[in-house]
Amino acid sequence: MERAVYKPLPFRRLKTGAGYQRLIAYKAVQVDSPAIEVMTDMRNVSAVTISPDVLLSQATHAMVSRGVRLLFVVEPDGEALGLATARDTMGERPIKMIQEHGGKHGDLRVKDCMTPRSNIEVLPLADVLRAEVGHIVATLKNVGRQHAPVVDNDTLTGEEQIRGIFSITQIGRQLGMPLQAFEVAKTFAEIEAALAA
């Protein structure tokens, strides 16, 4: 109901010792927790995006400044063209590009080293909703990747869209163990043994 007159709210003094609300970094999970609890949901967290024409050094800087290891490479209209990871900007891919085509690292652009949309493997949200954290860890280990995008269909257009992403680093934090510091276990028993150690 719209009011004709709105009264201002009263202020009061901040109490001594007051702090500020901090972001809850990660919810602790177990290997048998629902997988959705370790997915970064793009409805709640903005994706870090970059243009395909940006220099690799700028892409690396963007990752460092945002505390991520993956960028969504997009057109100005938001269409996903591919993914660029820290491995793509600082790993073997730039070196191979220079060896094969010549040039200097400083001249390479994101589009030169990104993983194009046609090569991106994704997990359907319907499968994720039936999975547990251990399934996601085993999946990432099986393909030897740090990340796994999750897709769903837009409720209005029906078009596929990236809905979220799994990061092995984040999953490790939520499990309370550094998954990148050792070979990621494939089975629940191996995961549980690592947690017990």
Describe the structure in your own words:
The radius of gyration is 21 Å and the shape is globular. The strands form 2 sheets. The chain has a 4-stranded mixed β-sheet with strand order 1-8-7-6. It has a 4-stranded mixed β-sheet with strand order 2-3-4-5. Helices cover 32% and strands 17% of the residues. By secondary structure, it is of the alpha/beta class. The protein has one domain: CBS-domain (Roll), CATH 3.10.580.10. α1 links the parallel β2 and β3. It has 8 helices and 8 strands; from the N terminus they run ββαββαααββααββαα.
Question: Helices and strands in order, then pairings?
Answer:
Blueprint: E1 40-41, E2 49-50, H1 56-66, E3 70-74, E4 80-85, H2 86-90, H3 92-101, H4 110-113, E5 115-116, E6 123-124, H5 125-129, H6 133-143, E7 147-153, E8 160-167, H7 168-175, H8 188-196
Parallel strand pairs: 2-3, 6-7
Antiparallel strand pairs: 1-8, 3-4, 4-5, 7-8
Task: Examine the coordinates and then state which fold CATH places here, giving the name of the CATH topology.
Answer: CBS-domain
Q: What value does the Rg take, in angstroms?
A: 21 Å
Strand order of the largest sheet: 1-8-7-6
CATH class descriptor? Alpha Beta
Overall 3D shape = globular
Taking the sheet with the most strands, its summary is: 4 strands, mixed
* Domain count: 1
Number of helices: 8
Mean pLDDT: 84
Strand segment count: 8
Termini Cα gap: 59 Å
Proportion of residues in β-strands: 15-25%
Uncertain residue ranges: 181-188
* Order of secondary-structure elements: EEHEEHHHEEHHEEHH
The CATH architecture assignment turns out to be Roll
CATH superfamily: CBS-domain
- The SS-based structural class is alpha/beta
